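Please check the following.

. . .
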Amino acid sequence: MKEKMPVHNNFFIKTFKNEVNTKDFIMGALPSGIVKRLDFSTLKIEDSCHIDERLRSHLSDFIIKIKTKDEEPVDIYFLFEHKSYKDTDILWQLLKYQFLMFEEDHNAERGFRTIIPIVFYHGRTKWNINRRFSDSMKVPKFFRKHVLDFEYFLYDTKHFDLKQNEQFGNNAYLLSVLSLMQNIKKMSDEKVRAFFRYVDKSDISGDKERIIVLVEYLIRTNEVEESKFYDIMKEELGNDGEDIMPTLVQKWIEQGIEQGIEQGIEKGIEQGIEQGIEKGREEGALLKAIETCKKLLLMGLAPSVVSDATGLPIKKVLEIKKELS
């Protein structure tokens, strides 16, 4: 069974473990008839500490608890499941997950929870998988009311449009996330420029931490020419773009170190694990620093700035600059 790509799943969880983002998403993605029945002041994000290890790589590991506006309010549990590919096992996964929750209720000797699954999909192919569990069985209509059944809500980013800003509570960060997840591997230079223009005019302009999260995901899910990307970011974001770049450079270096450590561990089977890790760390850091140094020099940054950003001696930076010339 396929596992989720960490880059997509981490970005998804980081976004929707924020209560404001989750509230605005539910209000914009679910039918209005359901939305108006929910008391969003009671919304709470709960970690699913009871998740079965077999499901841990396939589930987002959190649920949303919210009360209804009825005279006698009822707790509703929205189960969020994220997919970056068309997974034919979705109904089976959701069934198993709900079973674990019901089992917990049973063992605690309390009533079963009301669980509503929501599947968030941003894959490239059309999602044509059954949404109702009973549709996956050959059950005559007459008998359907006698068999176990549920139906999940599907949100497909293919239907997203930035013009839906009011629908999603004018939440610029959430809108940016949905746009990036919709345009994986499709961000042309013009789209990148339009994205930064949108960010610059929105309420997240100047919020360095959130912009870095968005930019890092954009870079890791698209084939971008980093020097051109930096120029576009600097032109559209001005000083904010220049402030963000050193942080991204550091992240790229850290990623290179991690890759080096992994390679070192593999070599360590023959050379000794500790020596392999240390060698991988050193080689990974140096190679990534040199690679980043070349990119920054090609962007036109001064050798002294490049030396500070990469940790390479100024003499080494000047040697690399001479090689590039």
